[in-house]
Amino acid sequence: MTVVLSAHGVRKTYSGFTALDDCSFELHAGRTLGVVGESGSGKSTLGRIVMRLLQPDAGTVELGGTDLFGLRATPLRTARRRIQLVPQDPRHALNPAMTVGDNLRFQFAAQRLPRATWTARTNELLDQVALTRDYVHAWPYELSGGQAQRIAIARAIAGRPDVLVCDEAVSALDKSVQAQVLNTFADLQKEMGVALLFISHDLAVIDHISDDVLVLNRGITVESGRTRDVLGDPQDAYTRELLAARSVVGVP
Ligand SMILES: Nc1ncnc2c1ncn2[C@@H]1O[C@H](COP(=O)(O)OP(=O)(O)OP(=O)(O)O)[C@@H](O)[C@H]1O
């Protein structure tokens, strides 16, 4: 299996406070790695580092076998297109002053996609995120949370990335909508072979979507491996605590 994204011994401190320590993982093409832990466990710090929005104090991150922090200029711009973020709040991904169509077309222009293909590509993206094509005329404020998150996903996959970093991407949604959006991610993965780094505090969400899991507690990886193995037979007390507090996806 091809490793599309990996981290080795990553550490990040903020003013002497260690938020993430010795973190390592491998994410394979077409698979989902869940990163789970309570608030403050270092999940978003890890997400920001692999998006190259934050510099680690130690360790390396490789995208497609290339050191992400060694890249400059054009190769860096190419790498940034290969890894895209789906944030918790779609308002951070969508421009409120543009229609859905313009939000997507903005991405196409950035990717220098030929103008003649824009309408077909917009329709294709709306189909992929299970929205009807007339949403192209909608404004972000007219969308429900679930619809807005689907458009944010469409925007993120517009350039056919290899990796999506989903940082609490369903946490703000109602439980029933959560299940639908998780299924959309799973369908996309089957269609596109995109790999997901899925960050969530909610073990039910991680259990639903992840092939592999990494459990973080105060910046330390307490457990990692196949989701069914780790959750089926947790070896660490912290994982057992998370399991005991777990909700159920799709059930309010
Ligand atoms: N820019 C920063 N400056 C100082 N401390 C920070 C900064 N960003 C995060 N931290 C601290 O680092 C720790 C990890 O934060 P991080 O946001 O990565 O955790 P998290 O697991 O994503 O939590 P949440 O789910 O609440 O977002 C926390 O204690 C947080 O207060």
Automatic annotation (TrEMBL):
Signal peptide limits: none
Keyword set, alphabetical order:
ATP-binding, Nucleotide-binding, Transport
What's this protein's family per the entry? Belongs to the ABC transporter superfamily.
The name of this protein is: ABC transporter ATP-binding protein
Q: What Pfam family is a match for this entry?
A: ABC_tran
The ABC transporter domain extends over: 5-243
Query: What is the source species?
Result: Labedella populi
The UniProt GO MF terms for this protein read: ATP binding; ATP hydrolysis activity
Q: Which GO terms describe its biological process?
A: transmembrane transport
